[in-house]
């Protein structure tokens, strides 16, 4: 194949825009040092990429998946939030029992509770700060 035309590749990739995306992605891969699957014949990277697609030495589906993967910055995984009790029970030392399990366990945090009347009484007892000319 002396020259690669879009018509040679359009049989393998239906959409011309997608063909451009895949060929440019493959050309970037080649410039980054990925091995080529055909003879270079003194061609530049975009031409080599198009020739690889036309000769079907690379699967367009694989190139498409690789392109999508390269563009992803953050992949969200939907995992349910585990309860604290479930997390602590899933630790091996809790299941099998360990002498160090009590020492490794975090301290339980407790809060003082107060009624609404106590809260209002405390607020009434507050003194506003002195006014200062600097502010």
At a glance:
With 135 residues, the protein is mainly α.
Based on the model shown, name its key terms.
50% helix, mainly alpha, elongated, 0% strand, 135 residues
Please give the oligomerization state of what you see: single chain
Structural class: mainly alpha
Percent in helix: 40-55%
Shape: elongated
> What series of H and E elements makes up the topology?
HHHHHHHH
How many helical elements?
8
What report would you give on this structure?
The protein has 135 residues and is an all-alpha fold. It is built from 8 helices and no strands. The longest helix has 16 residues, at 16-31. 10% of the residues are buried. The model has no long low-confidence stretch (mean pLDDT 79).
Set out the fold topology:
Elements: H1 6-10, H2 16-31, H3 45-54, H4 60-71, H5 84-89, H6 92-96, H7 101-104, H8 116-124
Helix pairs in contact: 2-3, 2-4
């Amino acid at each position: 194949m002396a020259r690669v035309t879009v018509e040679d590749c359009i049989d393998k990739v239906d959409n011309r825009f997608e063909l451009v995306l895949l060929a440019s992605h493959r050309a970037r891969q080649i410039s980054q040092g990925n091995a080529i699957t055909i003879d270079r014949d003194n061609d530049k990277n975009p031409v080599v990429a198009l020739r690889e697609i036309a000769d079907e030495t690379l699967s367009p589906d694989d190139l498409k998946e690789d392109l999508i993967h390269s563009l992803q910055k953050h992949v969200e995984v939907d995992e349910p939030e585990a309860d604290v009790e479930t997390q602590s029970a899933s630790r091996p030392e809790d299941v099998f029992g360990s002498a160090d399990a009590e020492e490794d366990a975090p301290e339980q945090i407790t809060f003082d509770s107060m009624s609404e009347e106590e809260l209002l009484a405390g607020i009434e007892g507050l003194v506003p700060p002195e006014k200062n000319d600097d502010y």
